[in-house]
Amino acid sequence: MITIFGVPSVVLFGQLLLGLINGAFYAMLSLGLAVIFGMMNIVNFAHGALYMMGALGAWILLEYFGIGYWWALVLAPLGVGIFGIVIERTMLRPLYKLDHLYGMLLTFGLSLIIQGVFRDWFGSSGQPYAIPAALSGGTNLGFMFLPTYRAWVIVASLVVCLGTWFVIERTKLGSYLRAATENAPLVQAFGIDVPRMVMLTFGAGVALAALAGVLAAPIYQVNPLMGADVIIVVFAVVVIGGMGSIMGAIVTGFLVGLVEGLTRAFYPQGSSTVVFVMMAIVLLLRPAGLFGSKPEAAGGVHVSLDAPAPAFRTEILLFLGMAALLIIGPAFVYSGFLMKAMLFALFACAFNLIAGYGRLVSFGHAMFLGTAGYVCGHAAKVWGLTPELAILTGTLSATVLGVVTGWLAIRSRGIYFAMVTLALAQMIYFVALQAPFTGGEDGLQNIPRGKLFGLFDLNDHTLLYGFVLVVFLGGFLLIAQVVRSPFGQVLKAIREHEPRAQSLGYSTDHYKLAAFTLSATLAGLAGATKAVVLQLASLTDVHWGMSGEVLLMTFLGGVGTLYGPVAGAFIVIAMQNYLASLGQWVTVIHGAIFVVCVLAFRRGLVGELIAFLGRSRKPATPAKTPQAAPEAG
Amino acid sequence: MAEMLKVNGLKAWYGESQALHGTSFEVNSGEVVTLLGRNGAGKSTTLRSIMGLVAKRAGSIRYDEKELVGAPSHRIARAGIALCPEERGIFSSLNVRENLLLPPAIRPGGMTVDQIFELFPNLKERLTSQGTKLSGGEQQMLAIGRILRTGARLLMLDEPTEGLAPVIIEQIAATVKTLKTLGFTILLVEQNVTFAAGLADRHYVMELGRVVDEIPGPAFADRIDSLKTYLGV
Amino acid sequence: MANVLEARGLSREFGGFRAVSNVDFALKEGTIHAVIGPNGAGKSTLFNLLTKFLSPSEGRILHKGEDVTALRPPAMARRGVVRSFQISAVFAGLTVRENIEMALLRTNGIGWSFFSSIARRPAIRRRVDEMISRFSLDEHADTQAGNLSYGRKRVLELATTLALDPDVLLLDEPMAGLGHEDIGRITDLVRESGKGRTILLVEHNMRVVSDLADQITVMVRGEVLAEGSYAEVSSRPDVIAAYTGGQHHG
């Protein structure tokens, strides 16, 4: 048998083929994302869910209507495309003028809804989809066996990708698209109905995802979550390739697939993380991506969501009120719930420090929560450290992780920052899945609570509650102080106008990194304490779903307000506790809350309340209009 | 002469700040009319408002008896108005040919591509170049050339001479004269007074978002001093 | 008089277009120096190059004789070269008072403080109060800057910049978008703040330029066309031609 660097050639070619297949899907998905982003400045987080809809659509067509593969190749993309058009008309259109992040948040909510609904229908186990008769069998190429269907997928995806490239780069319609990507108002002023073109582009981009889904159905197991993980890899592909180049998206997609295949052949443990490592290297060496022309699109209209901070005395009263409620809380509510809610509230407050006050919305904050939990659990269980030392160790691990990931991530802003943090967190997730000390799928169980400072036995529920209360209130006070401090003021100023802050002499990158690290540290404190309280550190806490939950808590409560994340965390945890019987519908509700928050009240509950109180106290004094606005140029 | 465009009490806002405070003027069919005024007077905003590129407008813009305030910009274009924007708006992801052919023909009677090449021979030699790789003068020619194809009858040119060399400015002046003889109606925004003086039938002077004066073409030389005050030169 | 800020052979290209082309330029200590020219002449690009918000394609920039071509914008500010922006740059979510404090946090070394409070720094408070009353912003001290009128935003921007007490002040079209009364007020403020400083301004409004500037540089198509006092420059036929579009050769 021939071996190449110790790997049998059959295995190597097999893995390369698999890499090429994966690459074909990455290419088709990132192509659709690139087209949609170019036209609408929206990072379509729901792209993975729509890909899943394509695959599941094909399965439903076959199972319930007896409609086979070839028709499914047409009907599923068509149906999903129409679904996409409805979404564009009803939800995305109002967002074009806002910060691009809102589009990402809304489509994140949509993907939760879609995945939740389908999981409720079909469960989460995979459904097999048979290879169509005409494409079954295979050919022996001598050096390897090539299944016909796999060859078909590669050819079909190449045709689709190059066809899309041709339409965009070489046709009249494509020139409209490219021109509208650059300057949509001017194209419309030439008499082209740009809103309709945008709508159809979104439909087409989404149909492309569904087509990829149908092609994938006979290869991968068809299940409602099949798009969730792939979309994160595709985001990494987009960051590697750089936005703004169609051919770049295609080439990078296949390239990443092949690199993954090679890694699987030579170093299988690294195959799921290699994409993210590639992304980190590209970010360091070429921040605009391999094919990117512009480092990032200009941000949308800046919407200041900040509510004026209440007076210092009001703040103290509010804080004392909250502390009092939490002290007497266990007399009325199950203390386990309160402890969990407090720790998530701390997590959300930490997230809010960077997302609300620094306007760097991380989509990967779970990595700090989860990592600190694992390290703390390991320290307590294996090294036998006392709880305070274990928590300190866990927290510091989050600090270190925060410095490293922050250093990489703050090179990008806005949606890029969101995608980069998401991808880095996914890398941590895969490490946690595979590393020997995390317990894999089972997690670290039975973490000993031990005696605090060797004195207070945390197995005593009252003591444990008191400990969590102190950690939460302490963390909260620290954040409140940082927000009020000169540092916090600089951070807010950078959020409002970064070039102006630079022109006053502030090295804004250093401030952002410090805030990010502080946020990571406090998220770590929440995670480490949680590991001790629940005696468990598991994959849930490093999963992207957890990053989504903290986003949800913060946006629901009110981003950029002190008490918003606390309120949001208590509501979300209460929903999970008391609505647990609804099963998948909890996810759907989460998604719906995202959608409603983005569309209707972007200030969140507390933010809207503050704005309402501010309005009712004194009538708004409208800003005087200037004599004339400066003309362009 | 038939009245083609009548702007009455036009107001426009960028966000909360008001840029036009009740602009009124009219343009007759076949005329060349200029809007003069210093930076920030609202000249470009007026053109952009007519084209529907400013989101918030009030007042009246009547073109061929049709009301345009409230219409989306692609409808306005299809009514027969074309804009050559101040920043020229050449698309860098399109080559010269694609840029030239981009605006769709909205009605018959537009110039053919060959006629456009007669006006601007330089363009013919650079058809496959990237649009923004052209010189400033060539980009301006491309920006004017592409709106001649569409059949639009009212052409709005926003500072076509900005940043260009004198010899190119002469060529553009000649082009505007040719376009007038071909029956186009032209609304021109200019800071270059000499350029405007030689071309226009009438001038409107704008200040702080309003039209404050009208100067007939022949009276231009007599009024040059008051004009200098308006322009702050 | 020594050159405070100097450009030597400075050029900047954007995708093949030379916005600033081989410009030699010197800003003399203690002067108010205006850069004028028609739209698209490269004034703003030059301005961004001098303040390091853009990197030059070619050429060098010197501050007090030292090469600062490689520095980043915050470092220029820390050397005492501070700019304003064409579209008024205030921190919209902060109050007027907090905006001005932003200038003083860093210079007082507490930008990195997580705990100390401005309330306990009487020196800062006094300076902020002084700036607020000097710029007649008293009524608005606790208004969020985003809610100010456009003219007041520009005043606030100037107040914040001057609170830094910079040696060199670079103002990018300080009068853009302002009405008559505001222009008069800001002209006075600029003149007053020019005492003991060097000011470079890019400005379209000729009346303001003739009122303020000791020295004028005229730019056309990315190059320096003329330099001198207002009287010298405004009588040159090539400058008039550049403005009014007539013929000139050379």
Automatic annotation (TrEMBL), chain A:
Q: Which InterPro entries match?
A: ABC_transp_permease (IPR001851), BCAA_transport_permease (IPR052157), LivM-like (IPR043428)
Record keywords: Amino-acid transport, Cell membrane, Membrane, Transmembrane, Transmembrane helix, Transport
A Pfam cross-reference name: BPD_transp_2
Q: State the source organism's domain of life.
A: Bacteria
Q: Which GO terms describe its biological process?
A: amino acid transport
Q: Where are the transmembrane segments?
A: 12-35, 42-62, 68-87, 99-118, 149-168, 198-220, 232-259, 266-285, 316-334, 341-360, 389-408, 415-435, 463-483, 550-576, 582-601
The record gives the membrane topology as: Multi-pass membrane protein
The entry assigns this protein to a family as follows: Belongs to the binding-protein-dependent transport system permease family. LivHM subfamily.
The protein's name in its UniProt record: Uncharacterized protein
Q: Which organism is it from?
A: Azorhizobium oxalatiphilum
TrEMBL record, chain B:
Q: Coiled-coil ranges per the record? A: none
User: In its UniProt entry, what is this protein called?
Assistant: ABC transporter ATP-binding protein
GO BP: L-amino acid transport
Domain (ABC transporter) ranges: 5-233
Family (UniProt): Belongs to the ABC transporter superfamily.
By its UniProt entry, which SMART domains does this protein fall under? AAA
Q: Which InterPro entries match?
A: AAA+_ATPase, ABC_transporter-like_ATP-bd, ABC_transporter-like_CS, BCAA_Transport_ATP-bd_LivF, P-loop_NTPase
Q: What's the superkingdom here?
A: Bacteria
**Which Pfam families does its entry note?**
ABC_tran
- Provide this UniProt record's keywords sorted from A to Z: Amino-acid transport, ATP-binding, Nucleotide-binding, Transport
Kindly list the GO molecular function terms attached to this UniProt entry: ATP binding; ATP hydrolysis activity; branched-chain amino acid transmembrane transporter activity
Instruction: Record the organism.
Output: Azorhizobium oxalatiphilum
Database matches in PROSITE patterns: ABC_TRANSPORTER_1, ABC_TRANSPORTER_2
Automatic annotation (TrEMBL), chain C:
Q: Which residues form the ABC transporter domain?
A: 5-246
Q: Which Gene3D superfamilies match?
A: P-loop containing nucleotide triphosphate hydrolases
The protein's matches in SMART domains, at most eight in alphabetical order, are given as: AAA (SM00382)
The UniProt record lists the keyword Transport: yes
Recorded GO terms, molecular function? ATP binding; ATP hydrolysis activity
Signal peptide residue numbers: none
Classification via InterPro entries:
AAA+_ATPase, ABC_AA/LPS_Transport, ABC_transporter-like_ATP-bd, BCA_ABC_TP_C, P-loop_NTPase
Q: Name one GO cellular component term.
A: plasma membrane
Q: Provide this UniProt record's keywords sorted from A to Z.
A: ATP-binding, Nucleotide-binding, Transport
* Keyword ATP-binding found: yes
Check the record and name the PANTHER family matching this protein.
ABC TRANSPORTER ATP-BINDING PROTEIN, CONSERVED COMPONENT OF ABC TRANSPORTER FOR NATURAL AMINO ACIDS-RELATED
Would you tell me the protein name for this molecule? Answer: ABC transporter ATP-binding protein
Q: Which organism is it from?
A: Azorhizobium oxalatiphilum
